[in-house]
Amino acid sequence: MADVYALEISLTHEGGHQHIYPVLIKDDQDTVLVDCGYPHFIIQLQEAAERYGCKLDAVNKMIVTHHDIDHMGCLAAFKRAYPHIEIIAHELEIPYISGLKKSLRLEQAESTLSQMPDEAKAHAEQFIAMLRSIEPAAVDKAVTHAERLPWCGGIEIIHTPGHMPGHISLYLSSSKTLIAGDVVVIEDGRLEIANPQYTLDMEEAVRSVRLLLEYDIDRLICYHGGLFEGNIREALGELIVRYASQKSIIEKELH
Questions:
Q1: DSSP conformation class of 59
Q2: Where residue 247 falls among pLDDT bands split at 50, 70, 90?
Q3: Which of 52, 9, 8 is nearest to 31 (CA)?
Q4: Where are the domains of the chain?
Q5: Residues 183, 162: Cα–Cα separation, whole Å
Q6: Which InterPro entries does the record cross-reference, listed alphabetically (predicted)?
Q7: Greater confidence, 251 or 147?
Q8: CA-to-CA distance for 148 and 193, rounded, in angstroms?
Q9: Secondary structure of residue 121 in the 3-state scheme
Q10: CA distance 126 to 194
Q11: 3-254 placed in CATH 3.40.50.1860
């Protein structure tokens, strides 16, 4: 069975302290890194990997869950530093990761700028500049839903759109581990939808959470929050019910 390590990285972002959790999957043949953090994060990744006795130059596969800056910010630099790695992403994400299309997050930020109050525009413009600075990287392998990658005992691709159209989560059946990416996050000890204000399609996001109930999960790792402690199936069900209730309330108010 492969070893799975959630690489806790602490950072200060937008005036607050937070943690992100790229994931390292490792066996005797392959070392797979899932997401790589913000720009200039190679040193932080290296330090986090070394806490588990791993070296970044052993990584030979990089799976990118989606093209947000905190997930692919240092991807191009990582590829330059370790040119042997193979980069993998969902087919819908490839145009954005490779720079063939403008980032959907950048489009979203640009489209809302004119509607913001003047006091918020300076911060929004800084965010837009940061998104524009993301360096694209070529993707070596496209994947689709239910595809099973043969590395580390088998890694199943779960297409979990909503946060982004091509967002993926990963399921390791050998250890019943679900690597969530941003399909769910942990806030105050419970599961939530990641950044609802940034989620491009909330209904899709909730359907993606519902899809996770089809998997036998003993261990759930969120990019924001790390390892979830608790009854996973119950927590996923509660999250679905919570959003269904919110939607019902909103629909009643509109009518």
A1: -
A2: low
A3: 52
A4: 3-254
A5: 8
A6: Metallo-B-lactamas, NDM-1-like, RibonucZ/Hydroxyglut_hydro
A7: 147
A8: 26
A9: helix
A10: 22
A11: no
Single out the residue of 77, 68, 61, 80 nearest to residue 135, CA to CA. 77
DSSP string, 130-157: HHHTPPP---SEEE-TT-EE-GGG-EEE
CB 192 within 8 A of CB 220: no
Contact residues for 200 (Cβ-Cβ < 8 A; gap 6+): 104, 108, 162, 163, 164, 165
Where is pLDDT greater, at 223 or 117?
223
Which tokens in the block code for residue 255?
A: 């009518």
Burial letters for 176-212: b for 16+ Cβ neighbours within 10 Å, e otherwise? ebbbbbbbbbbeeeebbbbeeeebbeeebbbebbebb
Length of the chain: 255
Provide the token pair at 180. Answer: 């969530």
Residue 200, both tokens: 């491009």
pTM over 0.90, yes/no: yes
Backbone Cα Rg of the chain: 18
Whether 63 shows a pLDDT value over 80: the answer reads: yes
| pLDDT above 70 for 255 | no
**Residues 189-222: pLDDT tens digits?**
999 998 888 899 999 999 999 999 999 999 999 9
